[in-house]
Amino acid sequence: MEHRGSPGYSGYGAYHPSHPPQGPPPPPQQYPALELLIFRNDRHTQTVRAAGRPDALLVLSLPQFDKPELKAFRVHKSGENIATARLHDVTTSKADMTLWGRHERWKKEYDSFSGLGHLCWEPSGERGYILEQNGRLLARYSVNTELQKKSKKSCGSLNLDRYFGLSGSSSEGQGEEAEARLEIYAHGLSREQLEEIVFSCAVEKSRFERYKKNASDAKIAGKLIHGLG
Predict the structure, then answer these.
(1) Residue 133 is inside which H or E element, if any?
(2) Which terminus of the chain is more solvent-facing, meaning fewer CB atoms within 10 Å of its CB: N or C?
(3) How confident is the model over 141-183, as pLDDT tens digits?
(4) How far is the first Cα of the chain from the last one, in angstroms, to the nearest whole number?
(5) Residue 11: pLDDT above 60?
(6) Which pLDDT belongs to residue 37?
(7) For residues 210 and 155, what is the distance between their CA atoms, to the nearest angstrom?
(8) Could you tell me if 186 and 28 are in contact, meaning their C-beta atoms sit under 8 angstroms apart?
């Protein structure tokens, strides 16, 4: 693990609000949230960085239809590969996740690798998710629905480059708008804890979407078979 002052450390640790509240700890939503923005580089990669920062926290390699794997790299695409995950279709609806060499097979919830306690991701709203830490709200993921509507209208045209910043590795995370955001309602988190929150979010989101698609496909296939019977 990297520590402050070590080579490559980009300052994504020990986050503290500028004016922490005094007295008993308030509900997490009263803390100023650390806002992580998620940019689309191309069809299968995303860059995650804090609002107002030019340097990336992680670059994510997303699953494809014939390659249901996720990977996370520090800072850029050729950076340290700190995490991998594999999705399943038949044997289990869980995902296999390896983070800093530790492995877990899970869906929705598991015990943190970085001391965050019991973590549980739940769907929330339109394509959103919330993360609970020991039953308390820790993070919220939400999509930029307006941007996604624009991108759907632009599919097949050069305008897609404008909305998703599709101009190669030199434009990592430099699209005009973020396609999603991850708000974290805690302070004093280490870089490793931020990385775990980001990657577990990507894994559960991908796992749940794949599970829904497989269930929908099975339902359609069942109706076709029933119709032929």
Answers:
(1) strand 128-133
(2) C
(3) 999 987 766 665 554 433 333 333 333 333 454 556 899 999 9
(4) 59
(5) no
(6) 96
(7) 22
(8) yes
